[in-house]
Amino acid sequence: MTDAERRQALEAIAVEVRACTNCRLHQTRTNAVPGEGDPDTEVVFVGEGPGFNEDRGGRPFIGRAGDLLVKLLASIGWRREEVFITNIVKCRPPDNRDPQPDEIAACAPYLRRQLEVLDPAVIVTLGRHSMARFMPGARISQAHGTVRPVDPATGARDALVYAMYHPAAALRTTAIETDSYADIAGAPAALIDARHRREAVRAQAAAAATEPADVEVEPAAPEPSAATEPPVAATAPTSPAPVLPPPTDEPAPQLTLF
Predict the structure, then answer these.
(1) Which secondary-structure segment (H or E) carries 163?
(2) For the chain, which ranges sit under pLDDT 50?
(3) Which one of 45, 127, 138, 258 has the lowest number of neighbouring Cβ atoms within 10 Å?
(4) Can you spell out the DSSP letters for 94-156?
């Protein structure tokens, strides 16, 4: 899929989100917030839901939490424009309450389709509700700063998920802010690991696709007057050795992609 095709697909999803009435949140929203960012990025940040400023502006993470997210990205040399940012729910829950399970379920197809289009290497979850989508059963106090493979059913067919606290929580608690800076420092290594993992998986898939199928060879009919020899069994082709990812001791990646 080309950059233009990705942009077109993401905008088509955004148009649906802005007109969505699939849950009660549409009744109190000012604007739905589909998400924004680089369609060719390798990294997608997924928050919980729009707040007051996001509801007014129709863009994700543009309030104080968004300012902190920009600072966190800058601390590792990344920029907001180089990633894609969205939320579990696309409309603001009243009074910034937690999104309810049926609201999350109503928005899930939009997020899944966004991830199918973006095909990220890494999904960074921001907050426990976002984390629960990709790390079911995990506790954020234990899982933050850790990485796991993503279930392809989420729409990300070959990705790793990296858990972080929500920036709003970091604004309220100094200890969580400290943890957030430590956690974001691990994101480049998670991206390197994800790249190597994808390269290995895709190389093996390509090798399997080009490997010839076994063909049963029938022996030629013997001449009536000649002595026959037993047929030689066909030898199955040897599968190529798995492609192992290279070591991860390389410089942190910059998201100046494609």
Answers:
(1) strand 160-164
(2) 224-248, 256-258
(3) 258
(4) GGGPPPPHHHHHHHHHHHHHHHHHH--SEEEEESHHHHHHHSTT--HHHHTT-EEEPPGGGS-
Q: For residue range 3-25, what is the model confidence (pLDDT) as tens digits?
A: 899 999 999 999 999 999 999 99
How far apart (Å, rounded) are the C-alpha atoms in residues 6 and 180? 31
Query: pLDDT tens digits, residue range 169-215?
Result: 999 999 999 999 999 999 999 999 999 999 998 888 888 888 776 65
Q: Distances in Å between the alpha carbon of 203 and those of 17, 157, 209, 257?
A: 36, 15, 10, 21
Give one word for 96, left, alpha or beta, with left for phi > 0 and alpha for psi -120 to 50. left
For residue 50, which amino acid is it? P
pTM for the model stands at: 0.81
